[in-house]
Structure formats: structure tokens, C-alpha cells
Write a structure and sequence with these properties.
The chain is α+β, with helices and mostly antiparallel strands. It has one domain: Dna Ligase, domain 1, CATH 3.30.1490. It has two helices and three strands; from the N terminus they run ββαβα. The chain has a three-stranded mixed sheet, with no helix packed on it. A hairpin with a 5-residue loop joins β1 and β2. The radius of gyration is 20 Å and the shape is rod-shaped. About 8% of the residues have low confidence. Bound molecules: zinc ion (2 copies). The site of one zinc ion has 7 residues, from α2. The site of one zinc ion (ZN) has 7 residues, from α2.
Length: 87
Amino acid sequence: MRDPDADADAGSCMCKYVKHLRICYVCQNESTVLISERLCPPAKRSGVFGSCDDGIASGRNRTQYQCWQCKDNVMRISQAARELTRA
Ligand SMILES: [Zn+2]
Ligand SMILES: [Zn+2]
């Protein structure tokens, strides 16, 4: 299985906590989806996160989306518009 984020931290040899965030492009509301552990090659060999001597870094992985509140607003607006044209 190919890691979709593999390119983002190519060249990094530290263990990494990666915080996956979603940011609404309408209201900029941020929410954490999950935090994943990225093991560096030495740590991978022992199978324990942070077991190398390189320390632990942290990174962020942002994706843009539309939160349910904004989706709800859009739906309500388009429904109101539909009702207006009908009337
Ligand atoms: Zn490491
Ligand atoms: Zn939003």
C-alpha cells in the first residue's frame, strides 16, 4: 500500500507525529481528524515509535473541506432560493 504522504516528508529521518487536520474553506474552522505516528527507518526496524536517538518531530497535514455547518447553510440558502422562485 502506498502512503499518500510519503512524498511530503521524504528526506526526514526522524520519528514524527503527524496531526491530520481538516480546515473548512468557508469558515476556517479547524478540526483534528487523527494523529498518526510516522516511524523513521531505525525505529521501524525495532518496531517502537521514538526508539531511535533522533528525537521526535511533529508535523501537520492539512486538508480543506466544507464543515457540516457550512454545508447546512448552503443547503438552507439554496432551498430558500428554490422556494422563492416557486412562489
Ligand atoms: Zn526515529
Ligand atoms: Zn465551515
